[in-house]
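Sanity check. The docking grid for iron/sulfur cluster depends on where the pocket ends up, so I'm generating a full predicted complex first rather than guessing from homology. Inputs follow.
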Amino acid sequence: MSESLSDSLRAQAGALGFDAVGVCGVDAIEGISKRLDAFLDAGLHGDMDWLANHRDRRADPRVLWPQARSVIMLGMNYGPDADPRAILGAHGQGAISVYAQGDDYHELIKPRLKQLARWLIAQAGGDVKVFVDTAPVMEKPLAAAAGLGWQGKHSNLVSRELGSWLFLGAIFSTLELPRDTPEIDHCGSCRACLDACPTDAFVAPYRLDARRCISYLTIENKAAIPREFRRAIGNRIYGCDDCLAVCPWNKFAAVGRETKLAAREALRAPSLADLARLDDAAFRALFAKSPIKRIGRDRFLRNVLIAIGNSGDASLVAEAERLASDDNPLVRGAAVWALSQLLAAERFTSLATHHLAHEHDDAVRAEWQHN
Ligand code: B12
Ligand code: SF4
Ligand code: SF4
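Predicted complex below; grid placement will be based on this.
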């Protein structure tokens, strides 16, 4: 590819809404499999079995697609217009992580990647495949190799120009494209992200124990949230931004320019009482086109009830009491925990006696009996 094609690729990517673009070879992350194995063998991925499947493909783009010669990595800035930590601990409101306050980035970025890929084929030929998030592709190390930034101690990609708020996507191409210079680590002695984590999820710098991460606990985890993390979760009801938000490199971050990724007013500081009343249909309507719809009403209400339990707000007792009789045991169990936090011991014990008479789910019974 000529330099001018390289320049036009950047211009075209910019016109399609991407804020960062770089190219690396398919051999750029040789040696990463040791680190992936170390992460998986230590069980740090929890129940995300899909991360452990096809390890060889994930660790090496050449195994995923032998014809590929280059990887074009794209970044889209979703920088927030306010500090996402401002809502933490807010009375009666839930905190939704920045990435989930707008439209689902998967649905936005994939068509843009395809458009860019089609443009590339029209200009220079070759064949392409596009990926965002869900394929066995290690997007962060590839983006670092393509010069978009470096993996910070929180393990996400940090850009000198854009800070931490970048979604990543990849185009694999059969063309030999000129490569960019990999970015080097600029964390230095900083450890702000490691110290900011509410659940102590970092076993070491650059090494996250996903099982302790609030993002995993509130999004990926399908079961009850383990007791040891419930208080620390506070009012975070979907994902967490603390380690990103604290990074000093965000002083260069700009507000994202893609309006579809901007926060919906209804999701900036939603009322826990309103969320607690969502049935399936209302959940689907509120979260149409949002990534939150993926976890479904029951898991979402589980999260809302943890936040209600942490609210110290007696006016929310009625919601928790009603949900202690919900059809779904995951919701009932979380409602019981919320009641255990909000009610005086005597009142809780009397409710427990009443509910235990007809509660058949072992996990929910255990919640009633725990306190
Ligand atoms: C699984 C996953 C998760 C899991 C596990 C996260 C993790 N750190 O692995 C959970 C559910 C916890 C999660 C949470 C989040 N995620 Co996520 N997630 C992914 C996914 C699908 C795969 C990541 C992966 O491969 N993990 C496996 C581990 C082994 O990989 P790794 O983190 O690169 O591990 C490296 C380090 O351990 C390093 N290492 C180990 N030892 C050492 C030592 C030294 C000295 C060094 C330098 C490095 C080093 O080497 C390993 C290999 O590179 C990617 C999409 C994709 N396909 O890549 C999105 C992705 C990483 N997530 C993303 C986002 C936005 C988030 C959240 C911010 C969402 C939120 N607000 O709640 C949080 C951030 C939490 C955090 N601190 O990481 C973005 C990150 C964008 C960016 N700028 O980096 C991605 C890329 C999705 C996307 N397409 O934009 N996520
Ligand atoms: S997203 Fe939150 S819980 Fe997860 S590692 Fe970062 S600060 Fe910790
Ligand atoms: S907060 Fe500090 S240690 Fe963490 S990623 Fe940013 S610069 Fe690196």
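Relevant for the grid: Strands lie at 20-25, 70-77, 95-96, 128-131, 150-151, 157-158, 166-173, 202-204, 207-208, 236-238.
Also worth noting: The chain has a mean pLDDT of 96.
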